[in-house]
Amino acid sequence: SVLLSILFNRYGYGPLKSIKYCCLLWGLAPIAFRDWKTKTIPNRWLAYLIGIRLMLLVLEVLFYPDAVWDNLMFLILGTFISGGIMFLAYVISRHEIGMGDVKLFMVTGMYLGLSLNYLLLLASLIFSAVYGCIKMMKKDFLD
Fold this sequence. Notes:
mainly alpha
C-alpha cells in the first residue's frame, strides 16, 4: 500500500482515487485466494466492494461537485457495459465463464471504468493463456 501510494502520488492521483484503487486491490486479494481454492467468488466480498465504492462516490460528489456527471457516467458505463459484455461471454461460452466472474467484472468496472477494465480483461486473458500453455507443456513433458 505504501509503494502504491508513492506511485499514485508520482502520477498525480488525488487521495480519493488512490484510496479507491487501494480498496479495490485489498478487496480483490481475498477474493482471488478464495477463487483459487474453491473456484467460487463470494457475493459477500463483492457486496463489500460495492458498498465501499458507493461511499467513495458520495465523497467524490461532495469534494468534486463539478464532476458529478463524469463520475456517475464513469461508474455506470464501467459497471453495466463490462457486466453486459461478460454476461454475453458467459452465455456464448455455455457457462464456462462463471457468473461470479461476470459479477466481479461489474465490480471492477465500478472502480476502474470501462477502458481500464478492458485492459484488465486483456491482461487476464494473456496471463490465462500463458498459464494454460505452461500447464500443457508440463503435461506433455511428464507423459
